[in-house]
Design a protein that fits this description.
four-stranded antiparallel beta sheet; 0% helix; 122 residues
Length: 122
């Protein structure tokens, strides 16, 4: 089974930055879409950003201009650079992979990491 492992979460002050990493157990070129989701307590899991094999990215409106998703196929890794973080963005952040041509819904992703906690607080 494909495994995805996230890292880089932690405590950051409002306005601060974090860089999340996700390493896959196989070549991420196998996955047409790589994405980052987040789930805050009591809320639905929401799509934060995606990147396809060609490097085309998409972002949730709330993070545009602040977050950057990238992928390194040689290292089997995906990254999420998060800048100017808000307390409302405290959540568990999940890495996900999809073999589909497009993946906007949670059930369109085939593999998931265990999540990494991001806490934005003073």
């Amino acid at each position: 089974q494909v495994q995805l492992v996230e890292s880089g979460g932690g405590l950051v002050q409002p306005g601060g930055s974090l860089r999340l990493s996700c390493v896959a157990s196989e070549n991420i070129f196998n996955f047409n879409i790589m994405g980052w989701y987040r789930q805050a307590p009591g809320k639905q899991r929401e799509l934060v950003a995606t990147i396809n094999v060609g490097g085309v990215t998409n972002y949730a409106d709330s993070v545009k201009g602040r977050f950057t998703i990238s992928r390194d196929n040689a290292k089997n890794m995906v990254y999420l650079q998060m800048n100017n973080l808000n307390p409302e963005e405290t959540a568990v952040y999940y890495c996900a992979a999809s073999t589909k041509a497009i993946a906007k819904k949670r059930n369109e992703y085939d593999f998931w990491g265990q999540g990494t906690q991001v806490t934005v607080s003073s």
